[in-house]
Amino acid sequence: MKRGPTGHDVVTIESGEAVRAFRPDDLPPRPPIEWTGERQRLLERATLALGRLDAVSTLLPDTSIFLYSYVRREAVLSSQIEGTQSSLSDLLLFELDAAPGVPLDDVVEVSNYVAALEHGLERLHGGFPLSNRLIRETHERLLASGRGASKDPGRFRRSQNWIGGTRPGNAAFVPPPPAEVDDCMAALERFIHADDPGVPDLVRAALVHVQFETIHPFLDGNGRVGRLLITLMLSNAGILREPMLYLSLYLKQYRAHYYRLLGSIRSDGDWEAWIDFFLDAVESTAAGAVATANHLLDLMQEDRGRLAGVGRSAASAERVHSALCERPILTVGAARDRLGVSYPTAARGMDALVALGIVREVTGRRRDRVFAYDRYLAILAEGTGPE
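The structure corresponding to this sequence follows.
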């Protein structure tokens, strides 16, 4: 449905020239979202796919094994949309204090995203409300170090930003003036907590994401916080028991269409086209996460079955293998620390895994060697290679 513009221009003066900044109307959309039979079917399919993903999480021997890597996979993908070149392996090496293969600033940004997401989820699980305060806290962690550290981490902006172009006067899009940001975000917070938002929780998350991106309340990091907000909303609504759904891979694959849809909402009010896209993204991503979890489980069981043939080293190899399922890049020292065993025990287990071809040493060094669970990492890293 094309409602016309979903906001109005506010003319301000920036550096001596008139600038038209867009102030979005408050949510929910007016007139309300049109629920055709096809759109209802999209919602049902997305909801069923989320149910299957939720069911898989209950079958996992230890959800933390997968969540550690899933969160980092999302951090890599969301940051790649903004232009960083880090891979999942780069991030894991950085966290291991081993040298990544990309500029340090790139991997620091990805690591900050992990910290921001984990902080937000931890606060929600502790009973803290999903609020502007929490959004600012996650932003503060996102820009805690690296290139964005000078862009007012944790504070809504007090100056005009823009998207595309070299200045607000020739930009592709100019978000609301700074004087409007607090009111826009307060209205968004009220919609997040509305008892009857007029739409299902899954669709509410879709609407909130777009509204946040249109407000662009921070000087930097808006895209990453906006995608992080989807995860926080789904978790807050109890749609998934474990935060295993991350949409950045889908948004990266269809990035140009995604940006066109954001623009069409602002100019034409076509919320329905965005909701259809979002529900497709949820269904596709949930199905992909189920397939990934099943592939990882199959690989774990296959490789665990091979360990019986290593004789007296089998017990230590099994323990190191378990550690690698949670951290697919490790040193012997890191395995020792995680497992609480002696260094010789961890080394014996790692050597057995190398001999079986399950694990590969990646540095070629005699000291400070780093080992990668290659096949496991390849399943996790599918689609995360830098462009």
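Strands lie at 7-14, 17-24, 329-330, 360-361, 371-372.
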